[in-house]
Design brief:
Elements: H1 3-26, H2 29-71, H3 76-90, H4 99-116, H5 118-121, H6 125-130, H7 148-169, H8 177-186
């Protein structure tokens, strides 16, 4: 086990226990993975929603921020003071959008480590056979799907990015339009 896996095992082991428990109840590893993923996503949804709300709020405050940046471009200290006053007046915390992402990241990384090598975090012998079950077109769930799932993931990422971009930017991207458009096509 690598150092990274040891660090992630703090979160991955309880997730492995839950995955094993779900498998005992459901009986199909493929369906268990789907239910498990929906459970994790459901638990992380409040954090994701807070992040999206903060991004939408940033869109409302952005014109005022740009006005302050333009007005005090040569005086960084005054600009910072005015920005803090604006944040206080608008009751807006720019870090509120990043904090949920920082909380989600270790959970998502631990989930990746768990699903990449599930038998490391689930010592139950029945799980050794379960991870090799077939599911739909995938003959062995312990091996990555080379075509269908990666393509679906790319399409889902594209639509998710498009939706998030439309909600947070409202279609008005200003100077960052080129970069955002490139990211929209590059990230998937």
């Amino acid at each position: 086990m690598t150092t990274y896996e040891r660090i992630m095992s703090v979160i991955a082991e309880p997730m492995g226990w839950l995955l094993s428990l779900l498998y005992d109840f459901i009986g199909s590893y493929g369906i268990t993975l789907i239910v498990f993923t929906l459970l994790v996503r459901g638990l992380l949804f409040p954090l994701y929603a807070a992040q999206i709300k903060s991004s939408a709020r940033m869109k409302d405050v952005q014109p005022k921020i740009q006005a302050i940046q333009k007005k005090y471009a040569n005086d960084k200290e005054t600009m910072n003071i005015k920005m803090m006053e604006l944040y206080k007046e608008e009751k807006f915390n720019p870090m509120k959008g990043c904090l949920p992402m920082l909380i989600q990241m270790p959970i998502i990384l631990a989930l990746f480590v768990l699903l990449r090598n599930p038998t490391t975090f689930m010592p139950d012998a029945k799980m050794l056979m379960a991870v090799h079950e077939a599911f739909f077109w995938i003959p062995d769930l312990s091996q990555p799907d080379p075509w269908v799932l990666p393509i679906l993931a790319g399409v889902a990422t594209f639509f998710s990015f498009s939706l998030t971009q439309a909600m947070s930017m409202g279609g008005d991207m200003g100077n960052t339009a080129g970069m955002m458009k490139m990211m929209k096509y590059f990230f998937p």
